[in-house]
Design brief:
This protein has helices at 2-11, 107-118, 155-163, 172-180, 224-228, 230-256, 286-289; strands spanning 28-30, 43-45, 71-76, 80-86, 97-100, 126-131, 135-136, 139-140, 167-171, 186-192, 196-202, 205-207, 260-264, 279-281. It is of the alpha/beta class and 299 residues long. The strands form four sheets. It has a five-stranded mixed β-sheet with strand order 5-4-3-6-9. The longest helix is centred in the C-terminal third of the chain and has 27 residues, at 230-256.
């Protein structure tokens, strides 16, 4: 468990290595700063017994819409841009809205799409964004399944300038994990869509920077994403893809010794094999419901 110990220590540094300010079900306290975050923030952690959360999708609660702050939670995907409003407890206060990801998903065109998505929803106070790539201090280091122009793009700052609201950006699989985990033991989340995302938690603490998708697997020059992303599904077909998924589940268990694995993303609908007892499929909306965790215990 030396790797997990290192991850937990890393998650208690001044910022999360993948840019995620929130820490799931672990209580943390942030130092005061200006309403629009233009600089990295220091984070102080206090351990506590994590709260449990359900992975089932709650119904939108119109009565809680008046509660503030309301979070606009956004999930940027290779095929769709999704959004939903959440109350302070992470309950939906709007229906999920979706627009198609631009055919050439450059930062400029995706931001225009997010503007269209924003206009479909009522007013909000702050923004959480799940992005399919590595994030450091609100900057996207790259997005293998979007466009090369995302390398070094200040997504958090750009959205704050456009919308005049505080924004936090995090890896999309980490946001999904926040929405799914119970905060007990070692929990892992993977997303199966255009690509493959992954996140790892220990007692509700995120292990930052995990990119299992790009880890070599099975054959030289191949990665988990080559087999389990959309390319793999198209190349190997549904039956073989399901066999590969079971093989990957067994490999991640041997590598990370997780207590529970959550699988989300659009291609979960392609799963037609029986999964191990400690593996759960979570709804697509989980990638939005986790957005409020980026602001937890921060008013």
């Amino acid at each position: 468990m030396a790797t997990l110990t290192g991850c937990i220590l890393a998650s208690r540094r001044a910022y999360a290595g993948d840019g995620c300010p929130g820490k799931g079900n672990a209580l943390f306290r942030e130092l005061p700063q200006s309403p629009l975050q233009t600089r990295p923030q220091a984070v102080q952690f206090l351990l506590m017994t994590p709260k449990t959360s359900s992975t089932a999708l709650p119904a939108p609660n119109a009565a809680s819409a008046a509660l503030s702050p309301v979070t606009l939670s956004i999930d940027i995907g290779g095929s769709g841009l999704k959004a939903m409003l959440l109350d302070p407890e992470g309950r939906p206060v709007s229906e999920r809205q979706r627009v198609t990801t631009p055919a050439v998903p450059t930062p400029e065109l995706v931001l225009n799409g997010l503007d269209d998505l924003r206009r479909l929803l009522p007013k909000f106070d702050r923004v959480s964004v799940g992005f399919p790539g590595v994030i450091k201090r609100g900057v996207t280091l790259g997005a293998f399944n979007l466009n090369p122009k995302w390398a070094g793009f200040p997504l958090q700052g750009e959205l704050e300038l456009r919308w005049k609201k505080p924004v936090r950006v995090c890896n999309d699989a980490a946001v999904q994990g926040y929405g799914a985990i119970q905060g007990k033991g070692v929990e892992m989340a993977i997303t199966l869509g255009t690509g493959m995302g992954s996140s790892l938690f220990s007692d509700g603490h995120l292990c930052p920077g995990l990119e299992l998708a790009h880890h070599p697997w099975r054959k030289k020059g191949m990665t988990y994403e080559d087999y389990l992303g959309r390319r793999g599904l198209d190349k190997f077909g549904k039956k073989e893809w399901n066999k590969l998924l079971l093989e990957a589940i067994a490999q991640t268990l041997a590598t990370f010794n997780w207590d529970h694995l959550y699988i989300g993303g659009g291609n979960t609908k392609k799963i037609d094999v029986e999964l191990p007892k400690d593996v759960s499929i979570v709804p697509n909306e989980t990638g939005l419901l986790g957005g409020v965790a980026l602001w937890r215990f921060d008013g």
